[in-house]
Write the structure tokens for this entry.
Amino acid sequence: MRKYYQPLLVLAVLCLVAVATSVFGADQPQWGQRYSRNMVSDETNLPATFDPDTGENVRWSASLGTETNSSPVVAGGKVIIGTNNAQPRDPRHPRYRGVLLCLDEKTGDLCWQLVVPRLEDTKYLDWRTGGICSVATVEGDRVYVVSNRAEVICLDLNGQADGNDGPYRDEGRHMAPAGMPPMEVTSIDADIVWLFDMPAELDVHPHDSPCSSILIDGPNLYLNTSNGVDRIHSGIPQPDAPSLIVLDKQTGRLLAQDGEHIGPRVFHCTWSSPSLGTVNGERRIFFCGGDGVCYAFKPLGSNQQVGPAKTLERVWRFDCDPTAPKDNVHRYMRNRQESPSTIMGMPVFHNNRIYVTGGGDIWWGKHQAWVKCIDATGTGDATETGLIWSHPVDDHCCATPAIHDGLVFVSDYGKNIHCLDAETGKPYWVQETRAPMFGSTLVADGKVYVGNKRSNLWVFAASKQQDVLATIGLDSPIIATPVAANGTLYVATFKSLYAICKTAR
């Protein structure tokens, strides 16, 4: 852990000045704007640059693991992020665990951690260095996250500080590897409220590392299941497992699941998380399957009676790649010219439209990708009628677009940032960043922030005019999406989390 302190009197004065001159926004308790998933923040007075070596504009930094795929969320005075356990904070837990860290928002100090042993049957169920890849969602004093074992877990935001809340009280057993006795629950261990095991309950077969960002809608949780291919990528071991499910946020009870039978058409894995929007007065759940299709469903009501899980009612479907192979899809593995498409980024709802990226799979599919704008008001099969515009991007794309002030900002795996017109898809500029990008763009304070695999954070003006404001070299690759909350920018690399805010030198 590194911290940067001025003498106490100077620091106090600087804090007072910062409060007086800054307009702080609010917490960022889930990925993107609430419901819509648009990664646009109202925060202001954020720096365009910082220097980890000198501490310029660095509030604090915290060590993570050695591979961090999750993005941070900020709520209730806490910063929560998933990583691996390659740099253990508790010597009782050796390397190769999934870890969810809860840090103090002011200092970066550890409040508590959720430690989850790996699924060790095969690395393709729970990638050895992947850790917890899912992004947490916070509401009140509850944290919802999907673990590296594909468990949906509800946690107490306060950890064990206020006692071990029930009904789940077997944390000691949960954090012990298979065949080992339960461990002592300490003050820095997470407090699990309830747990829903997707492989055990739904025959879900996770692939590599479960990746999900849970959507909260009233009393209900919506999430993708990360159902995917087998270890040799030859097929889907559990083709009948659902791709989208709904749980009761108070109890973890299964309420509903999709009935689209997406499994056999999943080319690699079910990575995209759901979003929500109101279309002409009607609420809709939007979800992109591992089959390259975007779906719209009617959401559940608030009062769900105990009984069998319901089937979500579909309103429309839009095939983002209708000419791609649809049958026996896994025979196209390693085919870089012809293959099914997949969608990794989230569907973003904005002004009765859905913005989504997709294309050939990065590891196994064709070199073709695009950003599409879809009419969200359709019904039935909207594949032929729902497309508003489509724009090609380079190589592959797994990012979620950000829509702001009539512009679309999106990163791709071909090393480029694109700025497009949100109405027409007209390109305004393309910036090459010299390295592939997994993470998405954050728009905040008139700037666009995005990281790449070359360990660089790029900062652009959020404008039609191409303007690179800064390129900042950090300690390791950046896959996470930057987040802004309460006057601070958070940037996670593989190894470190930086809290960035303007401070006078």
Remarks:
- The chain has a mean pLDDT of 92.
